[in-house]
Amino acid sequence: MSRVIASLTLAAGLLTSASVSAVEISISCSALGKEYEICKQGVDAWAQKTGNTVKIVSTPNSATERLALYQQLLAAGAGDIDVFQIDVVWTGILADHLQDLTSNGQSVVSQHLPAMVETSRVNGKLMAMPWFADAGLLYYRKDLLDKYKRPVPQTWSDLTETARMIQEGERKEGKGDFWGYVWQGRAYEGLTTVALEWIASYNGGTIVDEKGEVTVENPKAVEALKTAAGWVGTITPEGVLNYTEEEARGVFQAGNAAFMRNWPYAWALAQGADSTIKDKVGIAPLPKGGADGRHAGTLGGQLLAVSKYSKNADAAIDLVMYLTGQEEQKRRAVQGSFNPTLVSLYGDADVAKANPFIGDLADVFANAVARPATVTGQNYNKVSTEFFNAVHQVLSKRAEPAQALNRLDRDLKRIKRSGWQ
After folding, report:
1. DSSP per-residue string spanning 73-120
2. What is the tens place of the pLDDT at every residue in 56-82?
C-alpha cells in the first residue's frame, strides 16, 4: 500500500511540476491574407508538443503602423509580446530591445538563404531568425493575354501598352470597373518597396548606396517616377493612392485587373476554391525599366525575434526555433505559399507541386534589391518615410518628379549628417 501511495504521490508531483512549468507565450502575427490562420496552426502544433499555450496578438496590415506599435511597446519595456514577427528592414531599428539568438541559431543559420541571414544580423549578432522570404512579383491574367494575343510584358513600356489595350477591350464589353494594373500606392513602407523596384529597374540606384551616400536624385529615378505617375488615373485607379497589399489583391482577385504587383503570398489566395480567377493567373519577374534596365523585385520577408523583456525567454526562443525549422517552413510553403528561407526546401517535390513557380524564385531572391536598411541603421525608418512621402506626392500630382527628388535629396542628407547608425 505504501508503495502505491508513494507512486501516486510521485505522479501527482510530476503533474504539478508540469503544470507549473507550462507557460503562455504571446506572438505577434500579421493577418495579411492567410498569415493569421497559418500562424495559428503552427503555434498550436508547438503548444501541443510542449504543453505550453500561445496567444496570438493581431497587428495592423500596414507595415508602418505595425512598426510604430512595436516601438511603442518596446520603448516602454513592456513584456506584452514575447515573439515579434518583424520585417527584414526592422532588425537594426529594434535590435536594442531583442534577445541575441546567436548561440541558439548558429548550428542551423547557414542552411538559410544568405540574403535573409544578412537581414537578421546586427553587428555580427543574430538578433532574429529568418521565417519566410519575399520579393515583389508581377501577377498577370493568362487568359486575357491569350485573348488579346499579347506576351508577358518585359519592360514597363510593354506593360503600359498591354494594360491599356486589355482595359479598353474589357470596358467595351461592359466591364466598366476594369483596370489595367494595380499595386500598392498608399504612403507607407509598401510604397517604399514598390517605388524602389521602379527606380532600380531603370538602374537608378537604391536611394542610399552601400557606402551611405544619398543617390536618389538622378535622371533614371526621375524617369521611373514619371512613368509610374502616368499610370494613375489611366491604367491604374486613382484609389491606388490608398492601396496596401490587400486592396490591390481584392481588385485583382475579383477579376477587375489585368496585372498586379504583389508578394508571393497572393498566389495561394488567387488559386483558392472561392477565387474568381482560379487557374487563370501567371507570375513573372517585374518588368525592366527599358532595354538596358533590369528586373528588380525588392527583397522582403519576415523574421522572428524574441523580446528582451520576455518573462519566458527560453520558451519563446524554443517557439522561434520550431516555427523557423524545416517541418514548419515546409508546411507553410505548401499550405500558404510562404517562401521558405531554408535553401533545401526549394528542391522539395511537395513544395514545388503546391507552388509551380518556386524554382524560379530562388533566382528572384538571389537578385532581389535590398532596401538601404543596413547602412542607415536606426535611421532607416526616417529615410523610408521621407522617400515614400516624396513618391506619394509625385503619384498624387502634387509635385513633379525632379522637384520631389531634389527636396528628398536635401532631406536625406540632413538626416545623414546626424549619423546613419
Report:
1. HHHTT--S-SEEEEETT-HHHHGGGB---HHHHTTTGGGB-HHHHHHH
2. 998 888 888 999 999 999 999 999 999
